[in-house]
C-alpha cells in the first residue's frame, strides 16, 4: 500500500511482537510488547541475578534512580521539566496522592469539579476523599454532557465559582476521544484561584502536551496504553515546580531526599522535586519495560507520532464513511484535530460486533453501552491494517455473522 511505503515510522513495526493472524487495534487499552521492553526487563532481571541487593546502585540501570530516569523520558512527552515528573504508583494511587496533598478545603471553598464522562476510577477516588473529609456528594460537581459524548469547555468554566477548590479532568475523553482545551481551562481556573489537574491516560504517547508552559498544577497517568509499558506498568505523576516543597499528603520513605533516605530518621526530609510524591518502594520489575519502550519515543518524538496518528484515523474515518454507510454505525468522535488517537463507532449491536471482529482476527475494544473503539497506533499499526479492518467489518455486517453472538459484554470488555 502506497501510504505504508511513504510512512517514516513503518520501520518501528518490526520492533513489536505482532501476530500474523491478528490486527491489533486495542493499544489504547494495552500496548503491545516491544523487543526493547523485553530486553530492558531481562536486563533488570539479570542485574537482580548478578548483583542481588547491590542492584539498587549497580548495573546498567540502578534501581534506586530508575523512577527518575524514566521520569526524564516521560517529561519530554508531557512538555515538562525533568524535576516535575516521576514514574510512580498507579493512576489511581497517584490521584489519591494529588487529592491528599492539594485538596485543602475550607469554609466556602470545598468543592471539586469533575465531569460525567470521566473514567470511573477517578470519580471513585474523588468521592472517597470527600467522604474522608466529612463532606457529602453536594461538594462533588459533575459537569454534564449535552449529548452523552462530549463536554463543552464553556460548561466547565461556568461551574468555576468561589466554592471550587480543585478540578480534575481527563485530557482526552476515554470514549469519544475528545481532547479538552487544557491551556484554556488552566487559565480560567487560575483566574479564580482554583487548582486544576488532568488524567493523561488516553493522551500520553499519543498527542503532544505542554504542561509546564500551560501552568498545569498536576497530572497523572498510566504507562501501559500508548507507551507500551506492559500490564500493570508503574504510572506517571507530574507536579508543577511551583508546588515543590508542598508536603505530600500521603508520605512514604521513597518521597525522601535521596541522600537522606537511609539515615532512617523519623522526621522526613522531603525531596525537593516530584519524587517527593512517591510512597513505598518502587515496583522495579513493573518499571523495567518502560526503559526500553520509551527509547522509541525518545527517538521518534511525539510530534511525528501525532502526525501519523491523525493520518491513520483520517483514513479510517474515510473508509467508514464510504464502506459502512448502509449499516447504521454512528461515528461518535470528532473529525477535526480535537480528537485523540482512537475512533469510537456506535451501534446497537456493538458488543456482538466486537466478538465477531475478534473471531475474524481483529482486536477492538467495547465500551458501554454501544461503543466500538478502534485505535490504530502509530508505532506498530499500518494503513493496510486499517483498510483490512474496515473491510472485515463490512463483511461481518453484510453476512450478519455477528448475530450468532450474544449482545452482552464479556467480564472484561
UniProtKB/TrEMBL annotation:
Domain of life per record: Bacteria
Substrates-to-products reaction catalysed: 3-hydroxy-L-kynurenine + H2O = 3-hydroxyanthranilate + L-alanine + H(+); L-kynurenine + H2O = anthranilate + L-alanine + H(+)
GO cellular component, one term: cytoplasm
UniProt: pyridoxal 5'-phosphate binding residues: 91-92, 119-122, 199, 202, 224, 253, 281
Signal peptide bounds: none
Cytoplasm is among the record's keywords: no
NCBIfam families, per the entry: kynureninase
Record protein name field: Kynureninase
